[in-house]
Amino acid sequence: MSLPTNPGSRGKIDSWHERIIFPFIDFEGFNPFPNDDDGECGSDIPIERLP
Question: Cβ distance 12 to 2 under 8 Å?
């Protein structure tokens, strides 16, 4: 997850105010909604900065 400062002259991000590098997560066989049988799409996942 990144918060870029300003894009460079060609529009490519070359510096960041803050960058959070996540470790590798293996999602093989992961089912986030095992009981979702109603066919509804979408989800709400809150994202908050830790103190």
Answer: no
Looking at residue 22, the DSSP 8-state letter turns out to be P
According to DSSP, the residues that pair with 19 across neighbouring strands are: 2
Instruction: Fill in the DSSP letter of residue 35.
Output: T
Q: What is the pLDDT of residues 2-50, one digit of tens each?
A: 888 888 788 888 888 888 888 998 888 888 777 766 656 666 788 888 8
- In the DSSP assignment, the letter for residue 9 is T
Note whether 29 and 16 are within 8 A (CB).
Answer: no
Q: And the tokens for 31?
A: 């089912």
* Beta-bridge mates of residue 2: 19
